[in-house]
Amino acid sequence: MIGDNTSATSIRWMLNLWPPFIFQGIRVLEFDPGFRFAVIRVRKSILTRNLMGTTFGGALSAAADPFYPLLYWRKLSTDGVSTNCWIRQQRCEFIRPADATVELRFAIEDQQLAIARAGIEKDGRVDLEDVVDALLPAGEVAARFHITTALRARGSGSTPLLDQDSID
User: Fold this and answer.
1) Tens digit of each residue's pLDDT (9 = 90 or more) over 79-109
2) pTM, whole model, 2 decimals?
3) What angle do CA 128, 134, 135 make, to 5 degrees?
4) Extents of the domains making up the chain
């Protein structure tokens, strides 16, 4: 299980040995020790092919799913901010067929971290949207994922976000 003190190397190994990632051809190539970026590869293989012979969109979506919450959670926890993080929403644009191995490069910018810290300090919660592209070897975008990460302070609860419809 991944905890507040799990190292980037351990997270990388755990995810690379996680059966859903193994069978979908998903491999964590890099997981920054400072929790600022991660590089993920999705191989085109017999296990990831769809009826058209390209990489199944579900494999691409699975590769995009956990990394922003993991990066935010671990980065903030190393800075002393205790949070719960999860994907609130994922929206995908499939731009061209993924007819080769694709790579996704996740990065957390200083501005997003400042927004996260301010929201957690003020309201005990914040939702952040980030974008990651699934890139083909020539640099073409096969898919673009818009990922909303929910960050909530651990503890006594948090104030509602008044500007959004929210069930939590």
Assistant:
1) 999 999 999 999 999 999 999 999 999 999 9
2) 0.88
3) 135
4) 8-153
Contact 143, 94 (CB under 8 A): yes
Give the model's pLDDT for residue 86.
96
> Helix or strand or coil: residue 34?
coil
**Pairing of the two strands 37-42 and 102-107:** antiparallel
Question: What's the Rg (C-alpha) of the chain?
Answer: 17
What fold, for 8-153?
Thiol Ester Dehydrase; Chain A (3.10.129)
Per DSSP, the three-state class of 96 is: coil
Reference 107, options 149, 62, 71, 63; nearest CA is 71
Q: Tokens 């920054």 correspond to what residue?
A: 32
Residues 14-36: tens digit of each pLDDT: 999 999 999 999 999 999 999 99
